[in-house]
């Protein structure tokens, strides 16, 4: 009987650990290509995962006519999330597929719960030129 009571007391804690906890992030910014707003550029907010686990898509969208984007989303994870913004663009590019750059959201912008309390402002990002860590992505 005593073991059953202990198990009942621990059950909420155990289930939280098995399911992870909800975390959220939000980001905004402006994309430019050679000082012209980069409109209709695909942007995605991910939780970057390592190992065999795929990155978790938290939100996606496209820039408006002024090059602005705003993303927010949440995911359940056991450990703190690693939010990043992936930008898929063709600025100064004639090659097949799109250029992909990633901008990492600082940890202080992660919120517990499904709604982000703070929005990371990535500022104005000039897509022309080369970026460290830039890759190509044909399926995004």
TrEMBL record:
<dbReference type="GO" id="GO:0005576">
    <property type="term" value="C:extracellular region"/>
</dbReference>
<protein>
    <submittedName>
        <fullName>Uncharacterized protein</fullName>
    </submittedName>
</protein>
<dbReference type="GO" id="GO:0009986">
    <property type="term" value="C:cell surface"/>
</dbReference>
<keyword id="KW-0732">Signal</keyword>
<dbReference type="Pfam" id="PF01060">
    <property type="entry name" value="TTR-52"/>
</dbReference>
<comment type="similarity">
    <text>Belongs to the nematode transthyretin-like family.</text>
</comment>
<keyword id="KW-0964">Secreted</keyword>
<dbReference type="InterPro" id="IPR038479">
    <property type="entry name" value="Transthyretin-like_sf"/>
</dbReference>
<dbReference type="InterPro" id="IPR001534">
    <property type="entry name" value="Transthyretin-like"/>
</dbReference>
<feature type="signal peptide">
    <location>
        <begin position="1"/>
        <end position="17"/>
    </location>
</feature>
């Amino acid at each position: 009987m005593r073991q059953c009571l202990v198990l009942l007391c621990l059950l909420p804690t155990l289930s939280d650990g098995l399911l992870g906890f909800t975390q959220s992030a939000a980001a905004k910014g402006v994309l430019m290509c050679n000082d012209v707003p980069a409109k209709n550029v695909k942007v995605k907010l991910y939780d970057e995962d390592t190992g065999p686990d795929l990155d978790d898509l938290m939100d996606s969208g496209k820039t408006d006519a002024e090059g602005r984007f705003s993303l927010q989303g949440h995911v359940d994870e056991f450990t703190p999330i690693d939010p990043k913004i992936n930008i898929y663009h063709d600025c100064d590019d004639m090659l097949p597929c799109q250029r992909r750059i990633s901008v990492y959201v600082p940890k202080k912008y992660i919120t517990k719960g499904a709604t982000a309390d703070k929005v990371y402002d990535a500022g104005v990002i000039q897509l022309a030129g080369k970026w460290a860590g830039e890759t190509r992505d044909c399926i995004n």
